[in-house]
What we know:
Strand order of the largest sheet: 2-1-5-3-4
CATH topology of the largest domain: Rossmann fold
Largest sheet: 5 strands, mixed
Number of domains: 3
Distance between the termini: 59 Å
Number of strands: 17
Structural class: alpha/beta
Amino acid sequence: xxxMVQLEINGIPVEVPAGTSILNAAKVVQVKxxxxxxxxxxxxxxACGICVVRQAGSPKLLRACxxxxxxxxxxxxxxxxxxxxxxxxxxxxxxxxxxxxxQCPRNNNCELQKIAADxxxxxxxxxxxxxxxxxxxxxxxxxLNQEKCIKCGRCTQVCQExxxxxxxxxxxxxxKTRMAPAADVTLNESPCIKCGQCSAHCPVGAxxxxxxxxKVWRALNDADKYCVVQIxxxxxxxxxxxxxxxxxxxxxxxxxxxxxxxxxxxxxxxNYSADVTIxxxxxxxxxxxxxxxxLPLITSCCPAWTDWMEKYAPDFxxxxxxxxxxxxxxxxxxxxxxxxxMGIDPSKxxxxxxxxxxxxxxxxxxxxxxxxxxxxxxxxxxxxxELARMFKSTGIDxxxxxxxxxxSVLGEYTGAGxxxxxxxxxxxxxxxxxxxxxxGDAQPPSINFESVRGMQGVKEAxxxxxxxxxxxxxxxxxxxxxxxxxxxxEDRKAGRKPRYDFIEVMACRGGCIGGGGQxxxxxxxxxxxxxxxxxxxxxxxxxxMSHLNPQVQKVYAEFLGAPLSEKAHHLLHNHYHAKxxxxx
Length: 584
C-alpha cells in the first residue's frame, strides 16, 4: 500500500506523503497559503480562518492548516471568493485591533501587518471596537498587551502543550474572549516561568520582552559608570537574522565590534563563564558520583527551568546543581576579580548581559545570591532582539564590521563553552571535562558526544568512562521534563538506584538557540541553522574542553583557589526553595 497521495492544487499534479496538510502540500507547488494561527511547532487548530481553500465538488471551504490531503482532491487555493473571504476575516480582525503600528514592538515584523499589506487593506468597512484593557507589565521579563491580541491561541498552546506551565488560557466567551493568566491574575502572580516562548510565537505585539534599551543608553551616557557587557553563546548565531542573514551565521567578532561602537568599555563573553560553570558543576557531579552524593545531579543553568522546578517539582531541589548560570558567574567575577585586577570601583561597573532568553531578566534579582559581589551582579539584561534594535538605531552597518576580539580577562573561551547554547551542550561540555578529571587522560577518545545531540525531546545514553558507566538524560522544552522526573520518582518509590546519574534540562525547544528573546519566527529549520552555527564555533576552537581554558585556570590560581572552594561557593553558587505555583 502506497504512503503517497496524489492530488491537484490549482490544476497542478502533486504527490505528497499521506498525512500532509493541504497547507504544506501547497508549498510543494510554490503556493504559500496565508495563516495567522498556524505555527509548525504547534498543533493546527484552525482558529483564524484565513487559510480557507476550495475543494472541487464541495460547497464548503476547507481550512488548509488542519485538513489532510486525500487521493484525487482538486484544491483551489485562490479565486475571487476565497480572496474576498480572507480579506473579510482580516478586516474583522483589524476592526478590533489597535491602529498604533509605529509604537508597536513588532512594527515591520508583524504577521498581521504583513498579511494586511499583502491584501492591500486601506479601509476597515466595520465599526471599530478595540477593547480597553490595561497592559500587564507585572513581571520583569514579559509584557502582556491584551488589546493587541488577535485570539490566534498560539500563546495558550505554547504555554500549556509545549511548556506545561498553564499560565495563559482563554477567558470569556464570544467577542469578549481574550488570552490571559488563569483566574485573571497578573502574569507575575501566575505560574509563568518567564521563558518567553509565548512572545516568540505570538504573531503580533500582544506579548513581548520588557524593553530596557533606554536604561542601557542612559548608563552608556553616564560618565560616572564603567559599562561592560557579555554576550551569550546563542546570540552570535541568531542576531544576523535581524539583518537579513541566514540562521546560524556566526557573528562573534562582529558583535564584539558593534558593542564597542555602542560605547562599552569592556566586552566579555558568557562562553568564558560557561567554562567556569563546568569547573564548578563538573566538580560537583564528580564529587556526588564518586563519593555517594544525591543523584541524579540536575543542571541549573536555565532560569526558566529552575523557576518551573521550584514551583512544580520542589522534591528535586536536593538534586539541583548549586552552580549559578554562566550569566551570573560572569557578573559576579566582573565586579570582584576583574574590578580588583583593573583597579576599578565595583560600584561604578554597570554590567549588561545580552541573552537569548527573557527569563534572564528575572534571574538577575531572583534572590540575594545574585548580589554576591556586594552589588547587583548583573544590572540589565537585553535580549538578542533588543541588541539588534540598538545596533539599527545607531546606523552601524553591523554585518560589515571588522571582527574584533573579546577582552581577554573574562572573554577567552573553549568550544565547550560555546555549545552551552544548544540542547545537550551543557551535558557534552561537562562530559568532556569529567572524563579527563576522572581518568587523568588528556582527552576523551572522541571529543564529540553525539548521543546528547539532536532535536529529540528526551535523549538518554550511557557513557563509558574507562569502564565507569555514567547514565545521562538530556531534556529540552519544559513539556518533556515530567516523564524524566516521574521515572526518577518511580526509582525512589521502589528503592532502586536512580536510572540517571546526570540530567540536563533546557526550558526552550532546541535549548538557548530557541530562547524566548531570540529573533522571532523560529521553527525547527531555523533552530537547525542556529545549532549548526554553534557547533561550527566549537569545531574551529583551538581548545575544546573547559578545564584547558588558560584564563579559567588563571582565575582559580589568582582568585578563587579551586572549584567548590569556600570563595567559589560564596560567589558562584546558589540556593533553591519551593515556591507556590500562584504567587500571593
